[in-house]
């Protein structure tokens, strides 16, 4: 997750005789904080509602919370922390042009921490769904889920490391005027784009696996199997959101990146985890409302 874009090239200081050629600064600069706040809190509220209903559904049927539930709750906590930090950053000027932010270093640091929590939220929400699939799969499908679980977490973890350690000294991340060295921008951007693409692809792969797992079962009607597999495949939208981040990552690292690009990237990062939480909660909620998922002959679908 990118933080604030690098400051745009400063306007050269011209002699007083040429001062009229220097473009005047807008006394009322654009501020996209409202757009960010509305978007992320709609996503946060929606994910909170569905996660609450998921837990309620399990409690209603006297089901204990398992590892997938705990990872999902932890992901939600990280998502909420990130949203709080993003909103706090907007009070410091996040959402405006860098030249209009009074305390740019603090704003960068807060947005950096907010982005880091989004990385954790994304990793743990995907882990939750993968653990659910591990409980209902076997054979090559189970091995594939393990591969996706491990490789995705490693890729996202490295993204978190790169976010925190691209510069030496570390403080140069938010105090850009400090002397030091940083990783090449093309490397950081390229790896983040790779993670977004790989994560999106794995989201879609996991979302399609229920069709392979559930469809051969004969204990439900065709209509019921369609309902179960469709509800378990909604994670495909999280994958599409991850793909959308690729364009946002490209735009946010351009030399003269507009602040609205950063807003879109943060919103997409929030949406990725929020959509996953919602998608993973819907199958459990559906089962609770319909009451049709029963432990039949050790059926793995009883975990829903």
UniProtKB/TrEMBL annotation:
Main subcellular location: membrane
Region (Disordered) location: 1-24
Annotated Rhodopsin domain residues: 53-289
Signal peptide span: none
Pfam families to which the protein is assigned, alphabetical: Fung_rhodopsin
Membrane-topology descriptor: Multi-pass membrane protein
Annotated transmembrane regions: 32-51, 71-89, 109-132, 144-165, 185-209, 230-252, 264-285
Cellular localisation: Membrane
Keywords: Membrane, Transmembrane, Transmembrane helix
Lineage: superkingdom: Eukaryota
Cellular component terms per the entry's GO annotation: membrane
Keyword Membrane: yes
InterPro entries reported in the protein's UniProt record: Rhodopsin_dom_fungi, SAT4-like
Keyword Transmembrane helix: yes
Biased composition (Low complexity): 12-24
Family, similarity comment: Belongs to the SAT4 family.
This protein's name: Rhodopsin domain-containing protein
